[in-house]
Amino acid sequence: MQFNDVSVFYDYGKEVIFQTTIQTDEELKEIFLFIQPKGQSVRTESVIANENGEVIYTYDAAATPLRPFAMTDYWFQATLDDDSLIESDKFSFFYEDNRFDWNRLEENGFQINWQNKDASFGQTVLDVAEQSLEVARNYVPAEPPIQLKIYIYENASDVQTAMNLGQYKSWVAGHASPDLATVLVSVPEGPSQKLELERQIPHEITHILQYQMMGANYRNAPMWLLEGTASLAELYPNPDYQRVLERAVEEESLIKLEDLCTSFPPEASRAFLAYAQSESFTRFLYANYGSSGLEALMKNYENGLGCNEGFSSTFKNSLTQEEYRWQQQLGIHTGMLVVENVAPYFMVLALVVMPAMLSSIKTKKQQNADGEHG
Ligand SMILES: [Zn+2]
């Protein structure tokens, strides 16, 4: 008995068609198709063959999405009348967003994918990616993956639909799937294009490095540290963080860091403050303890220590004590928050793209089980 002509075709986000022709003289009781996206469990589909032994099975990828940008294994199994099982070889395909035509550039450990623009745009992205990696490694000194894939979308809603994020994540602009070494960012046409690349790419690359350093245990690290280092690595600081922080200090509405260990507030403006605080506090730690301090902290979290425990094992102070020191600096020397080395016209540009900046907000609660990261 043989499984011949095995093949797969798909319309990303809609349907995946699996085909084979089963060549046998025996009666078949049932046939199963197994599908396993990388990092996920096996899905089992019951399929049927026609009188010619042909199986053409349409998997509804809209109702039950496959994992975006994952290598996906699949194979068939037939049960004979005597209950013996015959399994096909394993096959696989790369489930890439094929709603768009991608231009590609592969160089220096990066694969850059973009739409509708010429090669010079790809080169610009590559330059930003290389610079981003260098900066991000100051905060997360890990080896990059063998190949880091970056997909540049033209708008945020394409990223959201690519990742099946649903409507409640309408503010997401960028996304990282750390174990797949894949980053999606959205860069609309316009004067802020380069700035958006320089903000989103380093942020998402940092999430990839966090996974490179801590493996799946990166999820044990506090949210404020993961998002703090990612925001810190952004090539241009977000001037809105400063404004939001100053207002929170004035109104005494800062969020306790302990409350930012496992998740960020679901409400958009509080989540934005959570990012601002995380960035500022992580910057404070970096200034006081350097990259070796941040690295030691990440190692302790990687080893399973809790949010407070990991912190006080790394530094002489507890999280609350260090938070107090940080707040003192915020209150007394708000000047430390003044964004340096940013030319005024960048500030103006940044204010123009303020809404886009809000779009990077993401809460851990909303991450799916695959450890996707915004
Ligand atoms: Zn992030």
In a nutshell, what does this entry contain?
With 374 residues, the protein is α+β, with helices and mostly antiparallel strands.
Account of the protein in words:
The chain is α+β, with helices and mostly antiparallel strands. It folds into two domains: 2-94, Immunoglobulin-like (Sandwich); 103-364, Orthogonal Bundle (Neutral Protease, domain 2). Helix content is 38%, strand content 22%. It has ten helices and 13 strands. The chain has helices spanning 119-139, 156-162, 193-214, 223-232, 239-250, 268-302, 307-314, 319-332, 344-352, 354-358, and strands spanning 2-11, 15-23, 28-37, 43-47, 54-60, 71-80, 85-87, 91-94, 103-107, 110-114, 148-153, 175-177, 182-186. The strands form three sheets. Strands 3, 4, 6, 7 and 8 form a five-stranded antiparallel beta sheet that branches. Strands 9-10-11-13-12 form a five-stranded mixed beta sheet, sandwiched between helices. A hairpin with a 5-residue loop joins β3 and β4 (43-47). The longest helix is centred in the C-terminal third of the chain and has 35 residues, at 268-302. The two termini are 47 Å apart.
